[in-house]
C-alpha cells in the first residue's frame, strides 16, 4: 500500500514537472510582433503568424503590451501567415476568416485541402472563445489553401 502511494506521488510529481517544462519551452517559441507602421499585432508560433484581431483577444491570451517586439517589414514578410488556430485543451482546429472561426469538421477535410499540421498556431482557450463562430464552409478552406500563382512579367 505504501509502495503504491509513493509510486503515485513520484509519477504525479514527474508529470507536473514535464508539463511545467513543456509550458516553459512553448513560451520561448511564442512571440508577439508588429511593424512600426502598422498597428496589427501578430502572435508567432512555430514560425507561423496569426493576427490578433482586437485588444480583447490579446488580453484573453494573458499577453503584455510591453512584450510586443517591433520588427522590420522585411522580417515580417518572412513569417508566413496562417489562418489555423487551436487551443491546447481542445482537439478542434479552426479556420479564421474575417475575424470569425470555423471549426474544420474532420481530419480528412483538413488534409484534403492540402493543409499542414505545422501551420496551426496554438492560442489559449479564452482567445479561441473570443472569436465569433460561424458555420464551416468548404470553400473558405480552399481559399486559404489555394497555392499562389506566379505570373511571368
| Outline | globular
Q: Count the strands?
A: 9
The level of helicity is 25-40%
Strand content: 15-25%
> What number is the mean pLDDT?
78
Q: How many whole angstroms does the radius of gyration measure?
A: 19 Å
Q: Which strand order spans the largest sheet, edge to edge or round the barrel?
A: 8-5-6-7-9
Distance separating the two termini: 78 Å
Class computed from helices, strands and strand pairing: alpha/beta
Sketch the topology as an H/E string, one letter per element.
Answer: HEEEHEHEEEHEHEH
What low-confidence regions span 5 or more consecutive residues with pLDDT below 50?
A: 15-28, 147-153
- The DSSP helix count reads 6
Biggest beta sheet summary: 5 strands, mixed
Describe this structure in words.
It is a single chain. The chain is α/β, with parallel strands linked by helices and 153 residues long. Helices cover 39% and strands 24% of the residues. The chain is built from 6 helices and 9 strands. A 5-stranded mixed beta sheet has the order 8-5-6-7-9. Strands 3-2-1-4 form a 4-stranded mixed beta sheet. It is globular, with a radius of gyration of 19 Å. The relative contact order is 0.14.
Strand-helix topology:
Layout: H1 2-29, E1 31-35, E2 41-45, E3 48-52, H2 55-60, E4 68-71, H3 73-78, E5 84-86, E6 93-97, E7 100-103, H4 107-112, E8 120-122, H5 125-130, E9 132-133, H6 138-145
